[in-house]
Amino acid sequence: MIQTLNRYILTMMLASLTACSTSVLDVNEMSAKSIGVSEDYVIGPGDVLNIFVWRNPEISVSIPVRPDGKISTPLVEDIPAIGKTPAQLARYIEGKLEKYIRTPVVTVIVTQFYGPFIKQVRIIGQAVKPQAIPYRNGMTLLDAMIAVGGLTEFAAGNRAKLIRHAEGKDMVAKVRLDDLVKDGDISANIKLQAGDIVIIPESFF
């Protein structure tokens, strides 16, 4: 039942990409495409933040970002966090705390990373642990496959597709995951970008 549902979802995703404005590229062409996002880390839902208020440990907290993108601290409720860098959020909280504390100094440290969708790489389908992975500078396809535990025994790795939104459209490239993961062919490895989606279909015997 679950495998049938997964197969249906993957089929519908590929069909919708075909119907929409897409451009089919080879891997080298896709690697040259950039989505032009900032390298500064942007806070997203689910991130865990350590908010330290200097000389005020009683209002320093470790707190997750709620699904609505906000956080609440002991003195300030419903602070919008999503879309801000840690430094921007720290300055925002300082401004809110000024009515309670003289010259507040706030530091925000992200201790668990998820980030917004535009800063994630999503692995869908026949991976051992399909999931969204926080993008890191220099991340490659091999890095992503290690993070999801590799391919399942039912994966058709060499029929996998990499989807990247750039220049106002979705671009699709075939990737050779079997060659990369099972055969160690490093030529099949490519650099990923934030926002990439890798779809791994099931092999039909």
List keywords for this structure.
single chain; 205 residues; alpha+beta; Outer membrane lipoprotein wza fold like; wza like fold; six-stranded mixed sheet; three-stranded antiparallel sheet; 23% helix
Overall pLDDT metric: 86
Distance between the termini: 18 Å
CATH architecture of the largest domain: Roll
- Lateral strand order in the biggest sheet: 1-10-9-11-7-8
The amount of helix comes to 10-25%
Q: Name the helix and strand elements from N-terminus to C-terminus, one letter apiece.
A: HEHEEEEHEEEHEEHE
User: Assembly state here?
Assistant: single chain
Return the structural class: alpha+beta
Proportion of strand residues: 25-35%
Low-confidence stretches: 17-21
Please outline the major beta sheet.
6 strands, mixed
Structure description:
The chain is α+β, with helices and mostly antiparallel strands. The chain has 2 domains: 2-38 and 117-200, Outer membrane lipoprotein wza domain like (Outer membrane lipoprotein wza fold like), CATH 3.10.560.10; 48-112, wza like domain (wza like fold). The protein has 5 helices and 11 strands. It has a 6-stranded mixed sheet, with helices on both faces. Strands 3-2-6 form a 3-stranded antiparallel sheet, covered by helices on one side. A hairpin with a 7-residue loop joins β2 (48-53) and β3 (61-64). The two termini are 18 Å apart. Residues 17-21 have low confidence and may be disordered.
